TrEMBL record:
It comes from Dokdonia sinensis. Gene3D superfamilies: Nucleotide cyclase. SUPFAM superfamilies: Nucleotide cyclase. This is Adenylate/guanylate cyclase domain-containing protein. Keywords: Membrane, Transmembrane, Transmembrane helix.
Length: 376
C-alpha cells in the first residue's frame, strides 16, 4: 500500500512534502529549545532551580521531544490535519485535530519523560521507579503548560499553512510586507483552465451536484498547483485562473508540470467522478506570459489583483483550444521561456492566429508527450 502511494507521486511532489516536513522539523525543534532556554535562564536568575537539576539531561530530553514532535508533526500530523480541514466541516476537523494532537502529545511527552527520569534516577526505562516518576509527570504543571503551548504552536502552524494555501506560496509574506500596497509591474505567467462541456454536465447534474462536482475538481487539483509553486488567482464558474511568478513558473517547467499533474490526478480519480457524478472533468488550458500591473484592491474585502493585456490574451488562447482540437495551447512567447521541458514532452508549433480582440497575430504552440513518461 505504501509503495503504491509513493509511486503515484513524482519526484518533485515528494520533494515538496519532504521540504515542508523539514521546515516544520527545524522550526519546531528551534522553538522547543528557545522555550527551554528561556525557562532555564528565568528560573536560574530567580534562584528557583533545585540543586539536583541536571542541565545536560534536561536539555537532551527537551531536544528529543522537539525532534520527535517535529518529525511526527512534519511527516504525519500536519498533513493529516490539513486533509481533514479540506475534507470536513471546520468544527468536525477541529475535533479530530484535538484528538490527534492529544495522542501525539502523550506519545512525545512519554518519550521525553522516560529519558529524563531514567537518566536522573540512574535506572532503566522499565524500572518501577522510572514508571512512577513518569506517571507523576503527567499531573505536573510542566506537562500541562507544555501541552497548552504546543497545542497553540500546532494550530498556528496549520493556520500559516492554510493562509499560504489561500494566497499561494510566497504571496502571504508579500501581502504582510505590503509589497503590493502600491501598484507595481511584474512579469507573470497565467494559465486559464476550463472544464469541457461544462454546460452539458451542469444540465445533467443539476445546480447542487454540479457545484459539488466543481468543488471536488478544484480541491483535487490544488496539490498540483501548490507543488509547482503556483497561485490560484480566481475561480470563475467552471474556470480557474492560475499564475506563477516568472522564475517559479519557468523553473523545472513548473507551469507545464502543473498541467500534466492536474491531468494525472483527474485520471487517477476518474472512477470516483464516474461513480459520483457519471462525468469526468476533462479540461483545456491556455498559457501566456508578460507584464501585468499587480496591487491590492478593495476596502471591505482586500485582495491582490492583476490587470493587463496578458490576461485577455491568455483567455483567447484557451478559447482557441477548441478550434485547434487540443487540450493545451500556449503562446510561443511563453514556450521560448522554457529552457528545459519536462521529460518526454515536446512542443508542436500550431501556426500564427489572429485572436479575438488582437490586431497582431500570435504564434501558438501545443505540447505532446513522446515515448518517455515522467512529466507528471
Amino acid at each position: 500500500m505504501t509503495l503504491n502511494i509513493l509511486t503515484s507521486y513524482s519526484r518533485n511532489e515528494i520533494l515538496f512534502y519532504v521540504r515542508r516536513a523539514l521546515w516544520i522539523l527545524i522550526a519546531w525543534t528551534v522553538i522547543s529549545n528557545v522555550l527551554f532556554l528561556y525557562e532555564f535562564f528565568t528560573l536560574k536568575s530567580n534562584n528557583a532551580l533545585d540543586s539536583s537539576f541536571d542541565f545536560k539531561t534536561a536539555f537532551e530530553a527537551n531536544l528529543i521531544v522537539g525532534i520527535c514532535a517535529g518529525l511526527i508533526g512534519g511527516i504525519f500530523t500536519v498533513n493529516v490535519m490539513e486533509i481533514w480541514l479540506r475534507k470536513y466541516p471546520f468544527w468536525r476537523a477541529l475535533l479530530y485535530i484535538v484528538f490527534l494532537y492529544v495522542a501525539g502529545a502523550f506519545i512525545v511527552s512519554t518519550l521525553g519523560a522516560f529519558y529524563f527520569n531514567a537518566d536522573t534516577l540512574g535506572k532503566t526505562w522499565e524500572h518501577p521507579d522510572t514508571i512512577a516518576a513518569v506517571g507523576e509527570f503527567y499531573s505536573s504543571f510542566l506537562f500541562i503548560k507544555n501541552f497548552i503551548v504546543w497545542l497553540f504552536i500546532v494550530l498556528l502552524t496549520l493556520i500559516i499553512l492554510m493562509i499560504n494555501d489561500k494566497y499561494g506560496p510566497g504571496v502571504f509574506p508579500d501581502y504582510l510586507m505590503g509589497r503590493y500596497f502600491l501598484p507595481k509591474t511584474e512579469t507573470r505567467i497565467f494559465m486559464f483552465a476550463d472544464i469541457r462541456d461544462a454546460t452539458g454536465i451542469a444540465e445533467n447534474l443539476g445546480e447542487k451536484r454540479y457545484f459539488n462536482f466543481l468543488k471536488d475538481f478544484f480541491s483535487d487539483i490544488a496539490p498540483a498547483v501548490m507543488q509547482t509553486k503556483g497561485e490560484v488567482y480566481q475561480y470563475v464558474g467552471d474556470e480557474v485562473v492560475l499564475t506563477w511568478k516568472m522564475r517559479n513558473g519557468t523553473h523545472n517547467s513548473n507551469t507545464l508540470r502543473c498541467y500534466y499533474r492536474m491531468r494525472k490526478i483527474v485520471s487517477q480519480k476518474s472512477d470516483k467522478y464516474l461513480k459520483k457524478y457519471n462525468a469526468v472533468p476533462h479540461f483545456k488550458v491556455g498559457i501566456h506570459c508578460g507584464k501585468v500591473m499587480v496591487g491590492e484592491l478593495g476596502r471591505i474585502k482586500r485582495d491582490i489583483a492583476f490587470s493587463g493585456d496578458v490576461l485577455n490574451t491568455t483567455a483567447r488562447i484557451q478559447a482557441a483550444c477548441n478550434d485547434k482540437s487540443v487540450d493545451i495551447l500556449a503562446s510561443k512567447h511563453f514556450a521560448d521561456k522554457l529552457y528545459r521541458l519536462p521529460r518526454g514532452i515536446r512542443p508542436v508549433p500550431m501556426g500564427e492566429e489572429f485572436l479575438k480582440g488582437k490586431t497582431e497575430q500570435v504564434a501558438l504552440v501545443t505540447f505532446e508527450r513522446g515515448f518517455l513518461t515522467g512529466a507528471g
